[in-house]
Amino acid sequence: MRKTPAAVVSSAFFVVAPGTVAVLVPYWISGWRLRDPFPDPVMIPIRALGAILALAGLAVLVNAFVRFVVEGLGTPVPVAPPDRLVVGGLYRYVRNPMYVAIFGAVIGQAMIFGDPWLLVYVAVMAIPVYAFVHWYEEPHLSRTFGADYERYKARVPGWWPTVHPYRS
To answer: In whole angstroms, what is the distance from residue 12 CA to residue 6 CA?
Structure first.
């Protein structure tokens, strides 16, 4: 796929998929109302850490989407996948930076708003995401990219970033 159409499709998908999962649903759950499950002196650093986590999640997500277009010459949309295996940038440290970023952004919102229901949402959301990765994405990548993907998968953790970057 060419970069311009890939960028357009990826941008639309960014708004629809992560926008729904990491912004709209958390808003429906929390109303983005501040709650105080702990006294104020305790909530201030929790909220600050939450804001950092949510913003970091957004930055990682944008970076991963751009990487699909620039390096993979495709999109994160399953019907328009990348032509090349994406192993650069943050993908050198974790195989699923998009999902990790979305989880982090929602956990950050839980910390900002003091809403434990957002943590329940992350836990529930993790089940179908893990199943999709395990039973669809990984087998598809293995069939598509063969030994290159298997080597990458053997060296880069799926869900918890490593400190040692992958070198292809």
So the answer is: 10
Report residue 99 as tokens.
């999902």
Which residues are CB-neighbours of 6 under 8 A, at least 6 positions away? 68, 69, 73, 74, 75, 80
Q: What angle do CA 109, 90, 68 make, to 5 degrees?
A: 95
Neighbours of 17 (CB within 10 A): 14
How far, in Å, are 30, 33, 35, 104 from residue 60 at the CA level?
Answer: 23, 25, 27, 10
Instruction: Report the SS3 class of residue 8.
Output: helix
Confirm if 107 and 118 have CB atoms less than 8 A apart.
Answer: yes
Nearest-angstrom CA–CA distance, 168 and 156: 11
The string of pLDDT tens digits covering residues 95-106 is 999 999 999 999
Q: Is the pTM of this model over 0.90?
A: yes
What is the rounded distance in angstroms from the CA atom of residue 39 to the CA atom of residue 43? Answer: 6
First to last CA, the chain: 23
